[in-house]
Design the sequence.
């Protein structure tokens, strides 16, 4: 394996344009989020290395034996997630990237293409929810203070965003693609003037710095494998993509904490993580979550994972309160378990932190979990936890800012009860509203069997369920009866198929959706098996009053379907019932807030950058 001469970013992208630098079919598709792209460009502007790359020289004789793809240029989360297939002539060699695809694709998108991600709260199945965005650099100033540690102000913006910023004297947005297109220094020098900042020294400095980083600096280092044995190449690919354990930033911070504590910080943190994860049906809390919890519960002002926050005074404060904080975390995890959550159903570990802070602030013990006097407060907390897990993006980027805001609200208004209204107002001011919208309802109703958010939705919709016991997510109309092969065998009296291929596809698509799901006790669900819903209900609840009560509790229409030809009508009615219940569930409950939430009125840079990360939460 040889080391090639380093090349500039511009040179690498020109090779991508000419299909001289391509991707082998063994590569996964592009998965990076906008914030990851922005961090790469920030690193480039700072002169930081972006890592080495591993490539494979594919000789003409081997080209025809393998399938290749081009790099993504215009990514759309709606309808363009897949790399284009490229037809490579068999009379020339090419270079295939084995390691570094995500970084090179990110450079390609930022400098040559577009990124379309879903607007937070937009309809998942509507193209207009995915506006096309280009990467821009603000030529007038560096990035505002942010949790990602960004120095330079890059953002993905739509044309509408640019038009809206036209009168903002603190911003002059330069399309980064124009820097790539300006191959010569003379062309680059004209760019600031084009945007009305030609006499601004800051603008000239930033444009020149980016141009140098793209066109002049030979910052990309490639190691090249030239073996033509495909089995050997596959082995290399697997090795570089599943290699040794990476030392995380929290590992380094934990080492600093260990040096600061009089006791053994590493043993204390690891022991607590292991103990918490054994609660109930088991959790998967990380060391990062517990360290972050410690910073929040110790009321340390800046809770970011920064070396300065792991100072001797802060670590002394953390160590002094560790035992009490550990107890609060155990109570908080116990509450999450009581709410029916576990590692498989908890979509965001960070929800633990404000729950733990509330417990810690009120000095609540395990008795709180059972006390009849605390039942209403527990229900308010349970409802908020589940709803925050249902709405996408709440616990994503901008987490530190959100946690600080929630801590201040709980500190000011949580002395006697969980301040639901004030907390939700603070969240809304951070662009993380729990308010119900038509798009949210549609998103919830398309949730599927087996997804983590599905359990949270059902548990929130049906608070009568005692989630401290084992409950299963169950198909109301049995999945076994809505099977393609089973449906294809069904006939009309005259022998013709009961369902067309199109209607079979439609029925199967609805089978695993939320309107056909409910929560049942484990043993009851096992006994139900694939019985017809109406027959099962009559056998399980002989009394008409009990049957009516069951249907009411589960928002089920009456009568329940008996055969699959009644399934569609049942599905649509249950969908309508759940829609009404979702609107009711997301109404803010609890006392009116006292005073004004401490969050600022406008979302900050972290919230703006986080928008593109929401869709997979």
Sequence:
């Amino acid at each position: 394996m040889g080391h090639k001469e380093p090349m500039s970013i511009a040179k690498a992208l020109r090779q991508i344009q000419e299909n001289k630098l391509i991707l082998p079919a063994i590569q996964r598709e592009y998965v990076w989020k906008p914030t990851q792209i922005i961090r790469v460009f920030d690193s480039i502007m700072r002169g930081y290395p972006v890592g080495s790359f591993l490539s494979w020289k594919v000789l003409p004789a081997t080209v025809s034996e393998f399938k290749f793809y081009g790099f993504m240029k215009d990514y759309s989360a709606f309808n363009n997630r897949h790399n284009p297939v490229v037809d490579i002539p068999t009379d020339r060699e090419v270079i295939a990237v084995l390691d570094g695809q995500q970084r090179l694709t990110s450079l390609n998108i930022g400098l040559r293409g577009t990124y379309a991600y879903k607007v937070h709260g937009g309809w998942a199945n509507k193209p207009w929810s995915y506006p096309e965005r280009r990467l821009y650099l603000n030529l007038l100033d560096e990035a505002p203070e942010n949790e990602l540690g960004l120095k330079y102000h890059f953002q993905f913006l739509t044309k509408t965003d640019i038009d809206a910023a036209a009168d903002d004297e603190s911003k002059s947005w330069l399309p980064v693609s124009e820097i790539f297109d300006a191959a010569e220094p003379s062309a680059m020098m004209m760019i600031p003037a084009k945007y009305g900042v030609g006499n601004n020294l800051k603008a000239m400095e930033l444009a020149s710095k980016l141009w140098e980083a793209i066109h002049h600096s030979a910052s990309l280092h490639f190691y090249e494998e030239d073996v033509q044995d495909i089995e050997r190449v596959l082995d290399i690919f697997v090795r570089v993509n599943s290699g040794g354990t990476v030392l995380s930033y929290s590992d380094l911070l934990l080492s600093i904490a260990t040096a600061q504590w009089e006791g053994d910080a590493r043993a204390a943190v690891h022991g607590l993580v292991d103990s918490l994860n054994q609660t109930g049906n088991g959790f998967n809390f990380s060391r990062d979550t517990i360290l972050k919890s410690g910073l929040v519960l110790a009321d340390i002002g800046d809770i970011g994972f920064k070396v300065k926050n792991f100072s001797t005074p802060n670590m002394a404060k953390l160590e002094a309160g560790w035992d009490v904080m550990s107890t609060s975390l155990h109570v908080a995890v116990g509450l999450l378990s009581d709410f029916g959550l576990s590692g498989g159903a908890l979509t965001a570990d960070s929800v633990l932190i404000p729950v733990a802070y509330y417990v810690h602030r009120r000095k609540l013990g395990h008795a709180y979990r059972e006390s009849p006097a605390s039942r209403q407060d527990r229900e308010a907390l349970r409802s908020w936890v589940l709803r925050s897990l249902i709405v996408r993006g709440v616990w994503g980027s901008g987490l530190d800012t959100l946690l600080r805001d929630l801590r201040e609200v709980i500190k000011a208004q949580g002395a006697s009860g969980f301040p639901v209204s004030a907390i939700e107002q603070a969240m809304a001011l951070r662009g993380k509203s729990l308010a119900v919208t038509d798009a949210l309802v549609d998103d919830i109703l398309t949730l599927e069997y087996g997804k983590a958010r599905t359990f949270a939705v059902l548990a929130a919709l049906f608070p009568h369920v005692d989630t401290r016991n084992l409950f299963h997510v169950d198909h109301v109309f049995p999945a076994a009866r809505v099977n393609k092969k089973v449906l294809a065998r069904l006939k009309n009296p005259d022998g013709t198929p009961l369902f067309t291929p199109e209607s079979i596809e439609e029925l199967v698509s609805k089978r695993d959706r939320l309107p056909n799901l409910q929560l049942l006790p484990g043993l009851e669900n096992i006994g139900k098996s694939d019985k017809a819903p109406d027959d099962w209900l009559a056998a399980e609840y002989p009394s008409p009053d009990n049957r009516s009560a069951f249907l009411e509790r589960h928002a089920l229409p009456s009568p329940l379907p008996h055969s699959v030809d009644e399934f569609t009508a049942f599905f649509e009615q249950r969908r309508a019932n759940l829609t009404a219940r979702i609107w009711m569930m997301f109404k803010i409950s609890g006392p009116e807030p006292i005073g004004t939430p401490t969050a600022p009125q406008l979302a900050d840079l972290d919230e703006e950058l986080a928008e593109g990360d929401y869709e997979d939460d």
